[in-house]
Amino acid sequence: MSILIRDALVLTQDAERSIARKDVFIEDGRIAEVSPRVPVEASYVITGRNLVMPGLVNTHTHLPMTLMRGYGDDLPLEQWLTQKIWPVEQRLTADLVAAGTRLALLEMVASGTTCVADMYFFEDTTARICREMGMRAFPGFSIIDFDTAEMAAEEMIPACEAFLRQWRRDDLISPVVAPHSTYSCSPETLSAAAELARRYDVYLHTHCSETRQEVYEVVERYGCRPLEQLEKTGALSDKTILAHCGWITKEEVRTIARAGACVSHNPVSNMKLATGGYTPLPELLAAGATVTLGTDGAASNNTLDLLESMKYAALIHKHHRWDATVAGAQQVLDMATVSAARFLGLSATVTEGAAADLAVIDLDAPGLVPLHDPVSQVVYAAQGGHVSSTIINGKPVMLERAFPLFDAQAVMDHARQAAHQLVDGRRYF
Ligand SMILES: [Zn+2]
């Protein structure tokens, strides 16, 4: 299968960050040629006034939580979790997770995301749906010290190992060990999870210092802060994704950089749940740490639109620091593309030989005219709905707003039914 994108503005994200009008030819999963005029025919040809860029990488989410989008909004975090989310999660089944994951992937593809690091329950189902819908994914098998709708707490480590064995040789799916957090996993559980990740040489994904209460709780219970706890249990390495880090100290910033771990910054979820802390982005970048972007689950966002998260990431730090120069458009674009890709061992540039994971933005939209600065346009003006095509592993998962590989209407209809089955509430449609 081949795809030709004719005369597009190519935002390469290469080392020089070069931008130029070119044709992009994709064949057998890779970018075969980027040049002023590619003289070939292709199975699919995309024309128009388009911007082509690397696909977006969402490094922290809980895909099936799309079924809880808009359920329990405007509540304090503690009440939101204990009264709304946790009771609903006890009613989850593999079928409901499948329906929510399909919806999440449809939304992500429709807004230019080509790779996702997830963590949730029934992760084997999630991995299967990601493969089926063509999403590049790092599904994280959740490990937590209480029984879930899927299994008892003591079954999780062996089940996670079986999950790693099952998926580790897949070209699109990279299985991940995901101990939930230092407040929901004992040191013994964290150590066992870390040992598993090390033994199979896979990534470890966890929540870290999302709220002040979490930090206080962990200090009181274990005499150390969450990051220190991860370090002590062997869970902090250059293959660790730390979601949030809203309440970390300058010393912890240095520890993260030294370990080579990755911080997944989730500005929209943090603001919505009023976590109060600010991920210290300028300090992390100055220390040389990898910072990437996540949406978090749709229950606390309420979208999976990473273009929207890019804008919030740029704005929150400027506002907080009284400094319009921090979190510049290029820095934020890097977080959502090349920084995340490099950390995950992927290629994410629009250059010859790179994997063809691309987003195409239709520039013929009222909100995207005129075009003074393509990077600024992507970060500050573009929204998910401006993405017209999304290519993953060389496949046209969305092609000029149509979905050739699956029935998008059926995905939405099924998710609507699943959401009503899961959550009691008024039915509008
Ligand atoms: Zn989360």
What labels describe this entry?
single chain; alpha/beta; Urease, subunit C, domain 1; TIM Barrel; 2 domains; eight-stranded mixed beta sheet; four-stranded parallel beta sheet; 38% helix; 21% strand; globular
Can you characterise this structure?
The chain has 429 residues and is α/β, with parallel strands linked by helices. Helix content is 38%, strand content 21%. A hairpin with a 7-residue loop joins β1 (2-11) and β2 (19-27). The two termini are 39 Å apart. Bound molecules: zinc ion. Zinc ion binds next to loops. Zinc ion is lined by residues 60, 62, 207, 243, 296.
| CATH architecture label of the largest domain | Alpha-Beta Barrel
Mean pLDDT: 97
Number of domains: 2
Q: N- to C-terminal separation?
A: 39 Å
Give the CATH level 1 class of the largest domain: Alpha Beta
By CATH, the superfamily of the largest domain comes out as Metal-dependent hydrolases
Amount of beta strand: 15-25%
Give the secondary structure arrangement, pairings included:
Layout: E1 2-11, E2 19-27, E3 30-35, E4 44-46, E5 50-54, E6 56-61, H1 77-89, H2 94-110, E7 113-120, H3 123-133, E8 136-143, H4 156-167, E9 176-179, H5 187-200, E10 204-208, H6 212-222, H7 226-232, E11 240-244, H8 250-259, E12 262-265, H9 267-272, H10 281-286, E13 290-293, H11 306-321, H12 329-343, E14 358-362, H13 374-381, E15 387-392, E16 395-398, H14 408-422
Parallel strand pairs: 1-4, 1-5, 6-7, 7-8, 8-9, 10-11, 11-12, 12-13
Antiparallel strand pairs: 1-2, 2-3, 5-14, 14-15, 15-16
